[in-house]
Amino acid sequence: MAKAKYIDLKPKKLEFMRNDMLCKIQSLKTSNMTVEIRCYKKNKFMQIDTVPFAQLPKELKKIIN
What we know:
Helix content is 11%, strand content 51%. It has one helix at 58-64, and strands at 6-8, 15-18, 21-29, 34-41, 44-52. Strand 4 and strand 5 (44-52) form a beta hairpin. It is globular.
């Protein structure tokens, strides 16, 4: 069985702070190890961003792996 190229992480409700914004992790793309995040400032949606898995906080990496 092949590994999934895309892992939906919305049900886990993983969040972290970055640049004074609350970032919620949406998905992990395993082919290039990037994470799609949605960033909120004062409960207002600001942007969708893609960051490398390596830039996530250590606590979140442990949960995802």
